[in-house]
Amino acid sequence: MKKVLSYLKPHTWALTWTMVVKFFASMMDLFIPFILAIIIDDVVPKGDPRLVYLWGGAMVLCALLSVTLNITANRMAAVTAGKVTLKLRHDLFAKLGDVSMAQFDSISLSSAVSRLTTDTYNINQFLNRTQRMGVRAPILLIGGLILTSILDVRLTLVLALTLPIITLIIYVVTKKSVPLYVRQQRVLDKMVRVMQENIVGVRVIKALSKTTYEQERFDGVNENLAEVGRKAGSVVAVSNPLSTLTLNLGLTAVVLVGGYLVNQGLSRPGTIIAFLNYFTIISGAMLGITRIFIMSSKGIASARRIEEILEMEGDQPLLPAHPADSPWHIVFDDVSFSYGGVGDSLSHISFKLKQGQTLGIIGATGSGKTTLTNLLLRLYDATQGTIYVDGQDIRSIDPAVLSEQTGIAFQSDFIMAATIRDNIAYFRDIPDEAIWQAVRAAQAEAFVTATADGLLHEVEARGNNLSGGQKQRLLIARALANEPRLLILDDASSALDYRTDAELRKALAQQHRDTTSIIIAQRVSSIKGADQILVLDDGRAIGQGTHDELMRDCPVYRDIAEVQMGAEQTGQPVLEREVV
After folding, report:
1. pTM score of the predicted model
2. Pick the CATH number of 411-483 from 3.60.21.10, 3.30.700.30, 3.30.930.10, 3.40.50.300
3. Could you give the angle at the alpha carbon of 170 between the alpha carbons of 8 and 162, nearest 5°?
């Protein structure tokens, strides 16, 4: 909670001014019953209408000032809470972008979404209501007790007896509700995850007629969330009735004691009426404090979840640079990697590539192909071994420098709702000439020019108005647009037909001769002309060499090639020239 509260420091003056305005607004509320007691006990007996009008006007003035000042303070509170939440949400989003992929995996996407939305909203409401009632309620409570003690100390003591009971109620409710709200937010994470899976996979769900199953799965999470909400609500719901009951019993005691004192001539009617008004004010203040503590339960739970991310320390430090002259552009030296320390996803991988050479990677699903590219992009750090880029340990290279030199295209990558040009440039300062060159190399020129607006054609979110092949060619164009020194195509041509795939490889060989390429593919034809081919199986290299060497020495590769060559001969035509 301390980390979140530190965001209030830049707004100290605004918070102080809000408290000052709230203080004077609350004092105006407290003066009204006091003036009423004076009118009833002192002014009315004199029979002078002018004095009644004068003191009545003072009551009206106090009421008007109270309304004006409260509105002003509430607006200031809303502005301050909004600014704090804006900064908090910005820093949280930035932190989520800075954490390593291993750390992000531990958070999960659904939890990140709920923390950015629901948790920051809870904090906004907590800060807003705390400024509005957190200042006003204590002033009304303390000020009311002081003024009632001036009017009648005996009646004040009767009222004061209720305060410890209400304090105990608030303490117990807060202690029990905070863990429940933390649990509620975790269940909300699960519901967000289920919703995301349904939205992303809506076509598959409909195609397989699993709508009913997904509805039942969502209902299960929804019922779990509702159950946790009911438990938290049942605990919180106790506070207001018990507090109200305690205050009403106190009010009854005040009326009985006050009536006895008036009957004995020890108090005056105006004092009793004013005291009853103060009792109403004080009871409202106590209920306001109760609501603040209830809101603080959600705020504290949300603050803890946000602080978990904000206080994360980077687990990928930038090591001191020790550049060394090396003839190799990319080197994997006995690299192994494990997700979460459970089994190796890659085991003892070694290879070397010179600038402009091509490495083809092939293997079954789950063999570690994408994991290898994740390590090369330093999305994760190897658990064993070292990766070198231009003779320098990849852990000592600035991530921004590494990303500027790399072009990457995945099989299913991010496409935003924007123009074709914006999707290719992706907020990089790339001239149209370079974009068109990338479009032609990616074999996307035909479908881009076929649209009415060309590069300015609007693409829907996730590329819903593009075919699978058009999406992949768009992603390949994005990877090529910045003239990368290192190009990674992670099964990025799987939706292309054989002829288009061959034309793509031909364009890469002619236009990007100096680009080191790593091509992950399921087709032997896509990597046949690579300088090296790496055959992976369960994270291990079971074959490494050229196409001809693997056809001779690697039975797994030879079986894949023979099966696919047979399919190609009976399927679509394949260009005879194989180039990379």
Report:
1. 0.71
2. 3.40.50.300
3. 120
